[in-house]
Amino acid sequence: MSSIQKPVDELSEREAAEELAYLAAEIARHDMLYHGKDTPEISDADYDALKRRNDLIEAHFPALLREDSPSQRVGAAPSLTFQPVVHARPMLSLDNTFSDEDARDFVASVYRSLGLLPDHSIAFTAEPKIDGLSMSLRYENRRLVTAATRGDGTTGENVTANIRTIRMIPQTLAADAPDVVEIRGEVYMAKSDFAALNAEMAAQGKPLYVNPRNTASGSLRQLDAKVTASRKLRFFAYGWGEMSEMPADTQFGMVEAFKAWGFPVNPLMRRLFSADELLEHYHHIERERPDLDYDIDGVVYKVDRLDLQTRLGYRSRSPRWATAHKFPAEQAFTRLKGIDIQVGRTGALTPVARLEPITVGGVVVTNATLHNEDYIRGVGNNGEPVREGRDIRIGDMVVVQRAGDVIPQIVDVVMDERPEAAETYRFPTTCPVCGSHAVRDINEKTGKVDAVRRCTGGFVCRAQAVEHLKHFVSRNAFDIEGLGAKQIEFFFESDDENLRIRTAPEIFTLERRQEASLTKLENIEGFGKVSVRKLYDAIDARRSIALHRFIYALGIRHVGETTAKLLARSYGSYERFGSAMVGAGSFSGDAWHELNRIDGIGEIVARAIVEFYKEPRNLEVVSRLLEEVTPESAEIPVSTDSPVAGKTVVFTGSLEKMTRDEAKARAESLGAKVAGSVSKKTDIVVAGPGAGSKLDKARELGIKTMDEDEWLTLIDG
Ligand code: IVH
């Protein structure tokens, strides 16, 4: 991403539309990496910068607002494996603030909106923003009944069994607690517990976890609660959803009540009375940050009085009475010792910086991503200069930046310290692994040259084939215990054809081939008799596998976990999916249109899937795989006992309590069908202010109409 972008007010309408399209796709991709796969690619700060740019362009060009705009969504769609839970009150997001000045603006805007004079002091709370997973805990009659993740804000995942293993979370509440209590807060893993877990992984020669947040997320999304129990997770309470009675009338008082009911609350929360005091506490927390045993990424300010919160109300997905003041990313200087080129599963050549080890924000960094060759040259994704056009050379003194949890990046070069002999870096034009040409494709849609150079070796390229297999056995795909990256390398390289694994189906024929073989796996160092038996059992255990895992494991370009789940949910069975993809081969016809109609699947993704199924070699591997493995059919989780199940609903006019997407997702999760136009088949029309012809038509046809509040009352029961 470029740090120097064209100012928004200089963009033409066409440029703005193009950039919004790019941002929608890019942000969705990062959402997928972050929420779906737990493997972020860019720093939180860069992610926020993308979102801000998107918001800014939308503010200037309101007519260009896209239906799939990131500003219209709260989070990622819920995953399939857990039962969906529709939140009694939506779980919203926070607006971000990035500077002291913006924080003052927030306070000023609160005063302005409430019509208060600056000398009339009101209270705010300030507390750390915990970098974990938000959770909603529902207690009925003082017993914990449901724990749900945020999901997309409307519908989350039911993780109650896993949450019950967290000792810090009370199972029952004291007699003075109200009948219905919904506590919202953050589940996290302590830095010390994370370090201990990784030390254990290292001792066992297993791959290390990336960071506490993703590990906590992974631990919580285990279907087996015993695994969650073995990881120490913790919790901080900071908010609430539905409450049958309110124990206090301020934010601070509410949190005190939670504490009295036995919930852990953050000790750094303060009640303060001016922007100066908020900023002073922000900088205090920033100084404390390295010594805290949990990751935080900012400070949250909230208006203390609940009646004032109500008066301030909400934007589409965040409250006007709160903001998150984010910490800047951490940076340090070091020398660039060399540049390695890694070849990924899709053939992408990724330059990786080898650095003189340096501590950035408490973590020793030796590698950093350099993104692609343009980035090294000082050119950003949209052709504009980055680092004011300064290129990066081996030997340079560079600025390394690390934000929270993601791969560190090199953001700048100190020109005064460039060695005289340093030469312009020449990016290879052949694959360093297989020697095939490496090319930059032209993006069909934009006509622009791709930033990424790719090896054209395909299956010939050892790096691509190995990475493909590693992906196949990875945690969110086949997840075969005892078959990790190291073992894959070993089997791939083997000279013995009864031991060799070059494609996924060969994993499942290994045991059979071994029976006929003279070289026995159990005689090879590192594999005893017991571990070989265990490996075969682990392989056999995956002969039946969830459909979305199967699809994800195929390693189709652009198909991450979230997309795989969408596909599984939409097609239900592999037979339907596979034959539809083959049937869509001409990029036209019913099968092609059906694929493109899936909410969340854009043309680029659709093309990539169909292209995959056009390659005979892929078809062959998949069909051999299907001889060994059975993908399970996916259940489509829709509630059937809701008052709107089976009904066709049309939303029209503007909605004030939820976005269109939220309204649609929520209605669908309750079993309703959401249609775009009113017809005789329509059962309910929900009309907000500004509703026009659709409402008229509904009245004409005698269809039931209601406003947003009536709708919410209906579905909330
Ligand atoms: S208040 C209506 N307080 O940040 C807004 N959120 O970006 C309710 N978070 O989804 C959120 N620490 O997961 C709040 N002290 C804190 C928080 C916090 C972390 C997370 C939460 C939320 C996200 C919003």
UniProtKB/TrEMBL annotation:
<keyword id="KW-0479">Metal-binding</keyword>
<keyword id="KW-0862">Zinc</keyword>
<dbReference type="Pfam" id="PF01653">
    <property type="entry name" value="DNA_ligase_aden"/>
</dbReference>
<keyword id="KW-0464">Manganese</keyword>
<dbReference type="GO" id="GO:0003911">
    <property type="term" value="F:DNA ligase (NAD+) activity"/>
</dbReference>
<dbReference type="InterPro" id="IPR013839">
    <property type="entry name" value="DNAligase_adenylation"/>
</dbReference>
<feature type="binding site">
    <location>
        <position position="150"/>
    </location>
    <ligand>
        <name>NAD(+)</name>
    </ligand>
</feature>
<feature type="binding site">
    <location>
        <begin position="44"/>
        <end position="48"/>
    </location>
    <ligand>
        <name>NAD(+)</name>
    </ligand>
</feature>
<keyword id="KW-0234">DNA repair</keyword>
<keyword id="KW-0227">DNA damage</keyword>
<feature type="active site" description="N6-AMP-lysine intermediate">
    <location>
        <position position="129"/>
    </location>
</feature>
<feature type="binding site">
    <location>
        <position position="431"/>
    </location>
    <ligand>
        <name>Zn(2+)</name>
    </ligand>
</feature>
<dbReference type="Pfam" id="PF03120">
    <property type="entry name" value="OB_DNA_ligase"/>
</dbReference>
<dbReference type="InterPro" id="IPR033136">
    <property type="entry name" value="DNA_ligase_CS"/>
</dbReference>
<feature type="binding site">
    <location>
        <position position="461"/>
    </location>
    <ligand>
        <name>Zn(2+)</name>
    </ligand>
</feature>
<feature type="binding site">
    <location>
        <position position="434"/>
    </location>
    <ligand>
        <name>Zn(2+)</name>
    </ligand>
</feature>
<dbReference type="Pfam" id="PF00533">
    <property type="entry name" value="BRCT"/>
</dbReference>
<keyword id="KW-0235">DNA replication</keyword>
<dbReference type="InterPro" id="IPR004149">
    <property type="entry name" value="Znf_DNAligase_C4"/>
</dbReference>
<dbReference type="InterPro" id="IPR004150">
    <property type="entry name" value="NAD_DNA_ligase_OB"/>
</dbReference>
<dbReference type="InterPro" id="IPR012340">
    <property type="entry name" value="NA-bd_OB-fold"/>
</dbReference>
<dbReference type="InterPro" id="IPR013840">
    <property type="entry name" value="DNAligase_N"/>
</dbReference>
<feature type="binding site">
    <location>
        <position position="127"/>
    </location>
    <ligand>
        <name>NAD(+)</name>
    </ligand>
</feature>
<dbReference type="InterPro" id="IPR001679">
    <property type="entry name" value="DNA_ligase"/>
</dbReference>
<dbReference type="Pfam" id="PF03119">
    <property type="entry name" value="DNA_ligase_ZBD"/>
</dbReference>
<dbReference type="Pfam" id="PF12826">
    <property type="entry name" value="HHH_2"/>
</dbReference>
<dbReference type="InterPro" id="IPR036420">
    <property type="entry name" value="BRCT_dom_sf"/>
</dbReference>
<keyword id="KW-0460">Magnesium</keyword>
<dbReference type="InterPro" id="IPR003583">
    <property type="entry name" value="Hlx-hairpin-Hlx_DNA-bd_motif"/>
</dbReference>
<dbReference type="InterPro" id="IPR041663">
    <property type="entry name" value="DisA/LigA_HHH"/>
</dbReference>
<protein>
    <recommendedName>
        <fullName>DNA ligase</fullName>
        <ecNumber>6.5.1.2</ecNumber>
    </recommendedName>
</protein>
<comment type="similarity">
    <text>Belongs to the NAD-dependent DNA ligase family. LigA subfamily.</text>
</comment>
<dbReference type="InterPro" id="IPR018239">
    <property type="entry name" value="DNA_ligase_AS"/>
</dbReference>
<keyword id="KW-0520">NAD</keyword>
<feature type="binding site">
    <location>
        <position position="186"/>
    </location>
    <ligand>
        <name>NAD(+)</name>
    </ligand>
</feature>
<dbReference type="InterPro" id="IPR010994">
    <property type="entry name" value="RuvA_2-like"/>
</dbReference>
<dbReference type="InterPro" id="IPR001357">
    <property type="entry name" value="BRCT_dom"/>
</dbReference>
<feature type="binding site">
    <location>
        <begin position="93"/>
        <end position="94"/>
    </location>
    <ligand>
        <name>NAD(+)</name>
    </ligand>
</feature>
<feature type="binding site">
    <location>
        <position position="326"/>
    </location>
    <ligand>
        <name>NAD(+)</name>
    </ligand>
</feature>
<keyword id="KW-0436">Ligase</keyword>
<feature type="binding site">
    <location>
        <position position="302"/>
    </location>
    <ligand>
        <name>NAD(+)</name>
    </ligand>
</feature>
<feature type="domain" description="BRCT">
    <location>
        <begin position="639"/>
        <end position="712"/>
    </location>
</feature>
